[in-house]
Amino acid sequence: MAKTSSIVKNNKRAALAKRFAAKRAALKALSKDQSASMDVRFGAQLKLAELPRNSAPVRVRNRCEVSGRPRGYYRKLKLSRIALRQLGNLGQIPGLVKSSW
Q1: Scanning 35, 71, 82, 86, which has the fewest C-beta atoms within 10 Å of its C-beta?
Q2: How far is residue 7 from each of residues 13, 42, 44, 71, 90, measured CA to CA in Å?
Q3: How far apart are CA 27 and CA 29, in angstroms?
Q4: Cβ contact 20:51 at 8 Å
Q5: How far is residue 68 CA from its own chain's centroid?
Q6: What's the CATH number where 89 sits?
Q7: Percent of the chain residues past pLDDT 90, beyond the cut
Q8: Would the pLDDT of 100 be above 90?
Q9: Other C-beta atoms lying within 10 Å of the C-beta of residue 12
């Protein structure tokens, strides 16, 4: 199980990223617009830099829904490899069969 503080910090980052997504996208589009003047583009870039760092979606870490583990994460299932194995052995994941040969 991951530290609770790490999980809470990551959830806070995800919420900030969601809250500032529209504003961040608008400023990014304006700063990359070649038809806009250089002053407008530079101003948009400065406003983008003033946003909280944790509002960037890049800073959000993929974590397991069950254990909060950040490594060995399967995106499709939103589980870590360890939680996937445990739930699979219990038969709680449909279609997952433990292989034996």
Answers
A1: 35
A2: 10, 36, 32, 13, 25
A3: 5
A4: yes
A5: 13
A6: 4.10.830.10
A7: 92
A8: no
A9: 12
Same domain, 67 and 87: yes
pLDDT, mean over the chain: 94
Please report which confidence band the pLDDT of residue 97 belongs to, taking 50, 70 and 90 as the band edges. Answer: confident
Residue 1, pLDDT above cutoff 90: no
Whether 27 and 9 map to the same domain: the answer is yes
pLDDT tens figures, 55-79: 999 999 999 999 999 999 999 999 9
Within-domain flag for 100: no
For residue 74, list its beta bridge partners.
79
Please answer whether residues 64 and 80 qualify as being in contact, where contact means their C-beta atoms are separated by less than 8 angstroms. Answer: yes
Structural domain that includes position 49 = 1-61
DSSP single-letter state for residue 101: -
